[in-house]
Design brief:
Layout lengths: L1 H21 L3 H8 L4 E3 L2 E7 L5 E3 L2 E3 L1 H4 L1 E9 L2 E11 H13 L3 E6 L5 E2 L2 E10 L1 H13 L25 H15 L10
Antiparallel strand pairs: 1-2, 2-5, 3-4, 3-8, 5-6, 6-9, 7-9
Helix pairs in contact: 2-5, 4-5
Length: 195
C-alpha cells in the first residue's frame, strides 16, 4: 500500500511538472536577455560571448568562442525554472556584477579563472537560481549590465572563420615522431614509427 502511495505522489509530481514546463513563455525570456536561446529538449541556453574583449595568452589572441563564452541555461522546474550559468568577467567587474545578482536573488556558487596568464585577467562567475524564468532573466541581465558584456546578440558571421595556427605544416607530425623515437629508445614500448 505504501509503495502505491509513493508511486501515485511521484506520478502526480511528474505530470504537474510537465504541465508547468509548458507554461513558460520563452519568448519573454528571449526578449529580456536580448537574444534567442539554443534549445535542446527543455533546456534553453543563452550565450554571452565577451566579443568586446581582446584577451591574449602568451602573445596569442584568444577568440571569444574559445574561452570567453559566458552562458546561462534555463530548465523548467517545479515552481517555474532553474537557471545555471558561467559569466565571463574582468576583475573590476566581479564585485558590481555580484552585488546586482545577489540583490536580485541569484546565487553565486563560484568565482575562479580558467586561463592563467591571460591579459587582461578574466574570471568566471558561476550563477544559480530558481523561480520565475522572466524574473531570473531580468536578474541576469541586470547583473551583466554592471559589466561591459555585450547585451545584444551579435549577428552570425557571413562565413566560417579560418583557423589560424602559427605552425609549420608538418611540425606537429615531426614533434610526435621525435617524442615516440625518444620514448622507444627508453624502452617504453611506444612504437617509434608513425606513418
Amino acid at each position: 500500500m505504501r509503495a502505491a502511495y509513493v508511486l501515485t505522489i511521484c506520478a502526480m509530481a511528474t505530470i504537474g511538472g510537465a504541465a508547468k514546463a509548458q507554461e513558460v513563455d520563452w519568448k519573454k525570456v528571449d526578449e529580456v536577455l536580448g537574444r534567442s536561446a539554443a534549445v535542446s529538449g527543455d533546456v534553453h541556453r543563452y550565450g554571452f560571448p565577451r566579443s568586446d574583449l581582446t584577451v591574449t595568452l602568451d602573445g596569442v589572441t584568444i577568440r571569444p568562442a574559445l574561452a570567453l563564452g559566458g552562458w546561462t541555461a534555463f530548465k523548467p522546474a517545479h515552481g517555474g525554472a532553474m537557471v545555471m550559468g558561467d559569466l565571463v568577467l574582468l576583475e573590476t567587474e566581479i564585485n558590481p556584477v555580484m552585488a546586482k545578482l545577489i540583490e536580485n536573488g541569484i546565487e553565486i556558487t563560484a568565482v575562479h579563472n580558467h586561463v592563467l596568464r591571460a591579459n587582461p585577467a578574466t574570471f568566471y562567475m558561476h550563477v544559480s537560481g530558481h523561480g520565475d524564468p522572466v524574473k531570473l532573466a531580468t536578474a541576469i541581465r541586470t547583473g551583466l549590465a554592471a559589466s561591459k558584456t555585450p547585451l545584444t546578440a551579435s549577428p552570425p558571421p557571413a562565413s566560417q572563420p579560418t583557423i589560424d595556427l602559427d605552425t609549420p605544416p608538418n611540425s606537429i607530425r615531426s614533434s610526435v615522431r621525435r617524442v615516440r623515437r625518444m620514448a622507444a629508445s627508453m624502452g617504453s614500448g611506444c612504437p617509434a614509427a608513425i606513418p
